[in-house]
Amino acid sequence: xxxxxxxxxxxxxxxxxxxxxxxxxxxxxxxxxxxxxxxxxxxxxxxxxxxxxxxxxxxxxxxxxxxxxxxxxxxxxxxxxxxxxxxxxxxxxxxxxxxxxxxxxxxxxxxxxxxxxxxxxxxxxxxxxxxxxxxxxxxxxxxxxxxxxxxxxxxxxxxxxxxxxxxxxxxxxxxxxxxxxxxxxxxxxxxxxxxxxxxxxxxxxxxxxxxxxxxxxxxxxxxxxxxxxxxxxxxxxxxxxxxxxxxxxxxxxxxxxxxxxxxxxxxxx
Length: 269
Prior knowledge:
The protein is an alpha/beta fold.
């Protein structure tokens, strides 16, 4: 059985830097996979990625040793099981608001007697090894997303769900649910930041790994410093947009400086 690198990392007391894929492209997935992340998540909820494309992206990621994860569209056992069968080594499930919702998520990710996952790891057994079904229950990581006021109010119930490995904070939806405003990187002292601290503390009480989505390397480092064991830095689309804008702005700035140096005039845009 292929080792789940995230579990090894966490057992050593380290934190993971997680990449995030929203573009439906195996090549962009391969480029991202070679960038040095500890894990990388295929976003099948808000990304532009369907199941077949996700399979191609998992194949591209497997050109590296990093851990492939997937955010499924919803808490639906069919797509959860199918995504694991395709070779994802962990599932992030959105909008888990109660233990009653967390329990079927875990059940869909575990083979009997620990769960109700159907047996048919068509690609997972090729990627992870012929003994996949023997070890999958101890290898696959189950993340419940905590991103609503309802989930915060029921944290202890959710976190006490048997077999739940980790939670993942969606700060944009959490912010909207708590305050009516979207946001990613929240300042200390805000309602959102207090909620994030409370979620982290509750996860630690229950021995559940805590992860979070962020919008910048600086905020991701801050969250890891606080005790999060996994932090995502933006998405492939956002990183591409930011790099492209920075490159164009740099050329405009350079042209402006060189033209002024010669003529004292502004550059024509």
